Amino acid sequence: MVGCALLVLAPEVLGPRAPQAADDALPAFSLSIAIFFSVYGVFLALDTAARRTRSVRLGSFLRRVLGLRSLLPLVLWAVLLGVWRWDTWVEFRFVRHGMTVQSFMLLLPFLTYEILSVLGEVMLRGRIGRTAEYLRSTIFIAPMLFFLTALFDVASSFETTRVLLQEFTIARYALWVLGFGALFLVFPLWFAFVFGAKPLQPKSLRDELRSIAADDNLRVHRILELPTRGRTLNATLVGPFAWTRCVVFTDLMLARFGVDELRGVFAHEIGHARGRHVLRSIACFVLLPLVLAELAVRILRAETEWSWALSVACAFSLMAVPFFWFRRRFEHEADLHGAAILGSTKDMIGALDTVRVLAPRASKRGSLMHPSTDRRISLLESSGGERGALRSWMRTSMLAQGAMFFALGAACMAFVPYAVDDFEDDLPGYLLASGDPESAWNAFENRASMDEKRRAHGLDEAMRANLIAYDGEDDVAVLAQRAVLRGQRAARDEDWKAVRGWFGLALRFGDSDPLTGTVWRYLVAVDRGDDKTIEREALWIRSLSVPEEMRRPLGRLLALN
Question: What gap in Å lies between CA 180 and CA 160, rounded to an integer?
């Protein structure tokens, strides 16, 4: 949290970024590594004091302070980005190497500090300890980010898709959806590889559990054992798609549970798959908040990074209470599904009884994600394992989640007009980038509802592309007139460099308006410092008929020189 706050607030506090601000990024990186080891030296002293003190309170306080060392990599990474401009250095030196290289360079300090944390724990404890698990988790998460960025890099390597992604917002959204779909598909395989999960042994037990899923007409790709050195008692369903879906048991659960209890646990996990809890959670508690946040930004017309981040935070905060309520109900639903699959509640209750013995804290008090073990057993006993009880229990949650799906549909429908506007606003830019400047000009000109600055810039770009690409003799007067109009608009904005460029193009295409030539020669003379020509052309400008909208800016220009 501290690191994230520093990452967000430091750029605002310290002012705007510039390439020069990143010149000290590499020396700062070396300095931050030295600071890291210095802080770990302090932790070493605190650990020694915690071991030797006779005060219980002081020892407890020091151990809590030592627990903060897991935040050190995040804090130093955030400070390096926010204070020493590491991200600016990456932006200006690796922008041409693709998104994957950029994202890797941005994470490089964090990965380095996590590796140093392993060395620091060896200094502190004489062993690697839990920091190796944190590092493994980072190694698990980071390549998934690189997978998404690599997808954009591959798509950008082809001219057609590059232009689509560059110009159409909807194309980027579509690629993100495709990328996350592929990510969910490979997620279970990557999980098993990184954390060393192996096929459950013996094979007879694996076959017996697989037969439970087959009886319920549900596919499970693999059943795995996860080594945790006996520290974790858990089982989980990994992956929402049947092609790669896995059920994972920890080594401690396999050591303490009998076959019947493992059948109950497996049926519970199958119940999560049968209830589609992963997909329902993603739809209601990921997609819905994101769509609501995007919709709020569009309605309020506040499209800054801060407004979007605030909108996302508010949307997710709004969905937090129903999320935890549903998470707890999903556990009950999975229990009831599992009992219905097995045909009785015996194995389910036996597994929960063992959990109550091994984890007594969970028996009376639940958590945000799980109801208490006693409550789960009570519900199973009252249901009798009948499907009618399952349907009765699910009725309330299905009605509530049905309302959320309705809200998601309504939000998507409300977002459609904005998506259509985005598409129509992006279309002229796509036409221009794909080599059709004439159609782009017409599209920009006809798109009156577009943001005026964006429309004016697009018209300028389309006009330049038209003039550069022009190689015939037809419609020369039209092109010259358009260049004059663009120059007059630039004159109203007192952008005299643009006026000189546009009027010069108009003269090149045969424009005969004396004002165009006079203003162009005057601006060229100003640029060259030719006082004699400046004086002569200024007299001509004063003697000519000047359009109303150009009188005031030209008057200020003449007075200035």
Answer: 22
